[in-house]
Write a structure and sequence with these properties.
By secondary structure, this protein is an alpha+beta fold. It has four domains: 96 residues, 3-Layer(aba) Sandwich (Rossmann fold); 68 residues, Dna Ligase, domain 1 (2-Layer Sandwich); 128 residues, D-amino Acid Aminotransferase, Chain A, domain 1 (2-Layer Sandwich), CATH 3.30.470; 73 residues, Phosphoribosylglycinamide synthetase, C-terminal domain (Glycinamide Ribonucleotide Synthetase, Chain A, domain 4, Alpha-Beta Complex). Helices cover 28% and strands 27% of the residues. It contains twelve helices and 22 strands. Strands 10, 11, 14, 15, 16, 17, 18, 21 and 22 form a nine-stranded antiparallel β-sheet that branches. The protein has a five-stranded parallel β-sheet with strand order 3-2-1-4-5, with helices on one face. Helix 5 packs across helix 6 and helix 7 packs antiparallel against helix 8. The chain binds adenosine monophosphate and glycine. Adenosine monophosphate binds next to strand 8 and strand 16.
Length: 423
């Protein structure tokens, strides 16, 4: 089977690593990929939103399946583009069509879906420029802190949590009337603040049935102790130590099953991942958000714990045979620590030469933002490399990653030294 993975981050490197292990993978392509993915397949330099270029790749290389890493091609309708094209419609795309991708692409769509199907989530209302006064009144009726969310995709920056009422009103105005997040904030969802500890569930569905992937917890803030600016993610652990079987049963019964059933009731076809951001409020799980893809860096700890063959798994997904598929999970813990460029998530420099990678033997290196030039590996993004290790528990897995990080160097390399501190 010839497989095309779309994307260029640590998540896509983990997909490539896993597919490369399958004897059933014939040719593996990653577009555009990075210096890590080229160990596992062939990188093709295209933009993931250039659907015509993707079509050419698929036809030229006789691709049998397309795996979509990031959300934007899905929200922009890549799957629909395949279904509408006679030469592409038989090629399965793992990732939902545009309508279903609104679960991530529109916070209001996701909220309406959850309320329609009685899936526990924070109370909310949504507002536009025209209804801004009602928005101010709604803020008056809530207790601080205030949660304001741009309805559309805002590169992970569209959620504001503000403790002061007047500031929350000013930000609402910035979002609605001054397009703080462009068209993404033409509509704003205001929701009740939920207090609790977060974790994520990962579901792969064929539209009828689903398999559960291992759960994980990521660390989004740049600073130790979960302080400072939000990032794409600085590290992750799987499994989540506090997620005992009673809690996981609640998550499955109250959230995962109603989500899959809700899609069916609403007649929304869905093939792909659902990544559910959860928060435990007094030990009761509630949904913070849906994503229509895997998480990054969560993938870098979730996939190493899957023993099943990926070609078999995704073939079963595409053929709607997941009900017959028993996923095999590695009982060990996996942890990852993300090495980032100094200055990230604000301004940072790229093209720093990375040394010592070849000395790392006891961790898996998932490249996130790297390029190769001649014999050198250079940084090319804020998040540069995820260092993943296994262990009998998350602490030992982390120790292994931290030990191996000492072997890697690049100018102004930064990472969090406290992943898992709250567990
Ligand atoms: P999102 O972009 O929806 O993942 O939101 C970013 C982060 O904001 C989440 O990971 C939570 O930490 C936080 N958050 C979002 N919604 C709420 C809420 N209703 N209550 C408390 N925290 C929230
Ligand atoms: N790590 C969070 C995300 O992928 O959205």
């Amino acid at each position: 089977m010839n497989i095309l993975i779309l994307g260029s981050g640590g998540r896509e490197c983990a997909f490539a690593w896993k597919f490369a292990q399958s004897p059933k993978t014939e040719k593996l392509f990653i577009a555009p990929g990075n210096a890590g993915t080229e160990k596992y397949g062939i990188n093709l330099p295209i933009n993931v939103n250039d659907f015509d270029a993707i079509k050419d790749i698929v036809l030229d290389n006789r691709i049998n399946m397309v795996i979509v890493g990031p959300e934007d091609p899905l929200v922009n309708g890549l799957h629909d583009y395949f279904l509408a094209d006679d030469s592409l419609k038989e090629v399965p795309v793992i990732g939902p069509q545009k309508f279903a991708a609104q679960l991530e692409g529109s916070k209001e769509f996701a909220k309406e879906f959850m309320f329609r199907h009685n899936i526990p989530t924070a109370k909310y209302q949504s507002f536009t420029k025209e209804s801004i006064d009602q928005g101010f009144n709604f803020l008056d009726s809530l207790k601080p802190p205030y949660v304001l969310k741009a309805d559309g995709l805002a590169a992970g920056k569209g959620v504001l949590i503000i403790s002061d009422l007047e500031e929350a009103k000013r930000e609402l105005e910035e979002m609605l009337t001054h397009e703080k997040f462009g068209t993404a904030s033409a509509k704003v969802v205001i929701e009740e603040f939920l207090d609790g500890i977060e974790m994520s569930s990962f579901v792969l569905t064929d539209g009828n049935d689903y398999v559960l992937f291992p759960n994980a917890k990521d660390y989004k803030r740049i600073g130790e102790g979960d302080k400072g600016l939000n990032t794409g993610g600085m590290g992750a652990v799987s499994p989540v130590p506090f997620a005992n079987s009673a809690l996981l049963k609640k998550v499955e019964d109250r959230i995962i099953k109603p989500t899959i059933e809700g899609l069916k009731k609403d007649k929304i076809p869905y093939v792909g991942f659902i990544f559910i951001g959860l928060i435990m409020v007094k030990n009761e799980p509630m949904v913070i958000e849906y994503n229509v893809r895997m998480g990054d860096p969560e993938t870098e700890v979730v996939f190493p714990r899957i023993k099943s063959d990926f070609v078999d798994l995704f073939k079963a997904t595409a053929n709607k045979k997941l009900s017959e598929f028993a996923i095999e999970i590695d009982e060990r813990s996996a942890c990852t620590v993300m090495l980032v460029s100094g200055g990230y998530p604000e301004n940072y420099e790229k093209r720093k030469e990375i040394s010592g990678l070849e000395n790392v033997k006891e961790s898996i290196l998932f490249h996130a933002g790297t390029i190769r030039e001649n014999d050198k590996v250079l940084s090319s993004g804020g998040r540069v490399i995820a260092v993943t290790s296994y262990g009998p528990n998350f602490k030992e897995a982390l120790e292994q990653s931290y030990k191996n990080i000492e072997l890697i160097k690049f100018d102004r390399m930064n990472f969090r030294k406290d992943i898992g501190f709250d567990l």
